[in-house]
């Protein structure tokens, strides 16, 4: 009994380590080519369920390891910064589930809209493919904030980035960790700008492959989805 428990714990630890290592790999692949948001989803959904997502993280796990974990921390320690922080009395699992749904509500809405256009049912591979594709696109808005907040946690010993920046503005003698944070903040700005461009390309590619209309119409809905996702991401990352 005890030996089985140890074996299960060992497998769990190994799985978590592998998945954590796959986070940067998956993010790099998606930033390298935005078309992979859709292409990876299509490719993986063609496989057997047990064979899916072996070389990179599934979009749901990627969302959990980036935006959901950060949002849970912000809810508990970041103050009343947005609507999420006002939700009290929930367990950690309930918070994580709620935040995951809220962070990815645009992915669900976009998927349902395209599904309605294609006259497909919800419980089909088509819905999963679209949903996974749109969830993957959230990496372009969550990754910059993941970098910034993680840097503030490890270098500034705080989850409140704004207060740490205020602190740095009052300091006259900077320490090594402060300079490292400035570099991390610069990386945040660069990755954020790149992410905005990649998000636009990813959304256009998804719509182009699922929306058979004039290119101008496709671009119109691409920009519409793009603006909605950026606006919504402000409060839930």
Describe the structure.
- It is a single chain.
- The chain is mainly α and 237 residues long.
- Helices cover 77% and strands 0% of the residues.
- The protein contains ten helices and no strands.
- Helix 2 (36-45) runs antiparallel to helix 6 (125-137) and helix 6 packs antiparallel against helix 9 (176-208).
Task: State the main characteristics.
237 residues; mainly alpha; 10 helices; 77% helix
Radius of gyration (Å): 19 Å
Largest sheet: none
The count of DSSP E runs of length 2 or more, i.e. the number of strands, is 0
The oligomeric state of the chains shown is: single chain
Query: Spans with pLDDT under 50 lasting ≥5 residues?
Result: none
Q: How are the SSEs placed, and which strands pair?
A:
Layout: H1 2-32, H2 36-45, H3 59-77, H4 92-103, H5 105-118, H6 125-137, H7 139-156, H8 161-170, H9 176-208, H10 215-236
